[in-house]
Design a protein that fits this description.
The complex is a heterodimer of chains A (327) and B (292). Chain A contains 13 helices and no strands. Chain A is mainly α and 327 residues long. In chain A, helix 4 runs antiparallel to helix 5 and helix 10 crosses helix 11. By secondary structure, chain B is mainly α. Helices cover 74% and strands 0% of the residues of chain B. Chain B has eleven helices and no strands. The chains are: A mainly alpha (327), B mainly alpha (292).
């Protein structure tokens, strides 16, 4: 077990390193002169040379690569081409904004999804079961910008129930940190992006919970619990649901990983100042240091979540043996 | 013999898809979009970028649906019906090409990995893990912004990611089949490795491959729509996502519901049709589901 976990962690580090390497080469092999998009060709020769040196673009590729890795590890991620701020400083603040939104949205998705899945299995074959399956599949096919814009059109513009975007009402951002997280204004801004994300990802936990519930209710120990004369509610909640939650739990970190990539859209629609919105801004203005660092940070998060999923899987399900791993 | 078996194959596939209500619905929607995509230049009443004028000679900006403009017009007075028809063509092309390329990549990686095992399996699966670490949309955005907003770069970028799920699923299925007796029999007869992989293992996972072809097309359509909604698409080849991007940057989402409704409905219809078809195959690939 311990050996398995250590090996997994090593793989994770290697994967992050590989993604960083791929990214470096993608940024260097792009067509045309890579410096042209960084340094305005309108500048005179001397100024261009100075900038090239400042960005390390005058050195051979392999030296640039080593420099890149060194800067990556030492958190020296360069400066934004457009605003000249330190990339690390910009990301620090954006990172937490994304985490807050993701945390709220995915907890909501998983709790509601598992709950609905449980009820569906309970009322299996009923109109509720069939209806929920179909609507989950359709919701999964509706990209978040469609549901997001729909919510904005109806709930914000027409009914004026929710703010149209951002994290706080302008001029109202007095609280910071924990205080901000629990302020009414912040929670009010959080509602629409949370529901939009949940709509898109709800189907996965819901259908998995439904299937796993059906599987569990067919097993002997449930029959035993029923034979003991326990009430159906108690059998469902205490005996069946607890065991059925396992696959939902293991899939959740992979799902959050997928959702991190999709968060770009939700943040763009609701002008949420997170990493996704930053990514779009940076990529459209060719602000490469920012785009590169944001991408890497998102990738590292996804890879880390995959690690959590692997480890929790073998901890939670004793039936899985992680021996040699040879087939 | 070949022609007969190809015919049989298609008859079986159509049977599987139409054996279930949702599959039937999905197949008819896809057929409809396919016909529209094929005939686009002949059935579109106007050019993609033509600014229309009404009978008084005024620019027909933001007109709601009417007899003159069946699906309404955009902020630049362009006909939404014509844009929808051409966008169907581009969206369909991107979805189909990337879906097919990615299932070929995914199936081969999965099959080779399962069949050879050992070092080859290790390398291919570590590579798949790396691709799993790439956040999909950010990857698309970076690649498209670096290499240019061109429909082929969009397709390549989508293919780079979408294959990953099919590779893992095909591998685990192929591993199970590799242990079966008829594979050992084929080996004993002296069949070549390639023959065993493509002649014996692959036909046995065909329902799974078709299921994931449908999924891959659905994911490609969603990814393309997402990237073009964010403004990362070929400006010359409008897609449904691109139409929504134009609506978004025009700032008219408060009023122009028709500009929003048609492309959104079509994205949902196409993707859910593909998902329904996958469900029909899922019942074949995984018969346990049927009893539920």
């Amino acid at each position: 077990m311990q050996e398995y976990i250590i090996r997994r962690i090593l793989y994770t580090i290697m994967t992050i390193f590989a993604v960083a390497t791929i990214l470096f080469f993608i940024f260097r092999v792009m067509p045309g002169d890579p410096t042209a998009q960084v340094i305005s060709p309108a500048l005179d020769e001397a100024a261009q040379a100075r900038l090239k040196e400042a960005f390390g673009l005058d050195k051979p590729l392999i030296v640039q690569y080593v420099l890149y890795l060194k800067n990556l590890v030492t958190l020296n991620w360069g400066r934004s081409y457009t605003t000249q701020h330190e990339v690390f400083g910009i990301l620090k603040y954006r990172f937490w904004n994304t985490i807050f939104l993701m945390g709220a949205a995915m907890s909501f998705t998983l709790v509601v999804g598992a709950g609905l899945g449980m009820v569906m299995a309970w009322k299996r074959g009923s109109a509720l079961d069939v209806g929920s399956t179909v609507s989950a599949l359709v919701l999964q096919s509706a990209p978040p910008f469609v549901t997001g814009i729909l919510f904005l059109m109806i709930l914000s513009y027409r009914l004026d129930l929710f703010p149209t975007g951002g994290m706080a009402t302008p001029g109202m951002r007095l609280a910071t940190g924990i205080q901000m997280l629990f302020s009414k204004d912040f929670l009010h801004h959080l509602v629409l992006p949370t529901i939009t994300t949940a709509f898109y990802y709800l189907a996965t936990p819901m259908l998995i919970m439904r299937d796993s519930m059906l599987e569990v209710t067919g097993s002997d120990f449930i029959e035993l619990a029923q034979a003991k004369g326990l009430s159906p509610n108690r059998v469902m909640m205490k005996h069946a649901a607890r065991n059925a939650l396992l696959p939902v739990f293991t899939v959740s970190s992979v799902l959050i990983g997928f959702a991190l990539g999709g968060q770009v859209i939700v943040e763009q629609v609701f002008s949420w100042p997170g990493m996704g919105q930053l990514m779009v801004e940076a990529a459209s203005s060719h602000d490469y240091p920012v785009a590169q660092a944001t991408f890497l940070l998102l990738a590292a998060l996804v890879i880390f979540l995959n690690l959590i999923s692997d480890i929790s899987y073998c901890y939670l399900d004793p039936r899985i043996s992680v021996g040699g791993g040879k087939h | 013999m070949k022609l007969e078996s190809i015919k049989d194959f298609f008859v079986t596939q159509v049977g599987i898809i139409t054996s279930n209500r949702f599959g039937k619905f999905g197949a008819s929607i896809i057929l409809f979009f396919g016909v529209v995509a094929l005939l686009a230049p002949w059935i579109a009443p106007h050019d993609l970028w033509e600014s229309l004028r009404d009978s008084n000679g005024k620019l027909a900006m933001l007109r709601p649906p009417s007899l003159e403009f069946p699906l309404g017009t955009t902020a630049m007075g362009r006909d939404i019906l014509s844009q929808m028809i051409f966008a169907t063509r581009t969206t369909f092309l991107i979805g189909l090409v990337s879906g097919l390329i990615s299932i070929v990549i995914g199936a081969n990686i999965g099959l080779l990995s399962a069949f050879y095992g050992g070092k080859i399996d290790e390398i291919l699966m570590r590579f798949t893990d790396i691709v799993y670490g790439m956040p999909f949309l950010p990857f698309l955005i970076v690649l498209i912004s670096l290499f240019g907003r061109n429909i082929w770069f969009v397709i390549i970028a989508i293919c780079c990611i979408v294959w990953r799920t099919s590779a893992r699923v095909v591998r685990s299925q192929a591993l199970a089949i590799r242990q079966r007796q008829f594979i050992m029999a084929a080996r004993a007869r002296g069949c070549s490795n390639l023959r065993i992989i493509y002649g014996h293992i692959m036909p046995n996972i065909l329902p799974l491959l078709l299921l994931y072809t449908s999924f891959n097309i659905a994911w490609s359509v969603l990814a393309e729509a997402g990237a073009s909604f964010l403004g990362f698409s070929d400006p010359d080849n409008l897609t449904w996502g691109g139409m929504l991007y134009n609506l978004w940057i025009s700032g008219k989402i408060r009023t122009a519901w028709w500009w929003f409704a048609w492309p959104s409905i079509c994205i949902i219809l196409l993707v859910s049709s593909l998902v329904f078809i996958s469900r029909a195959y899922e019942e074949v690939a995984n018969p346990r589901l049927k009893q539920r």
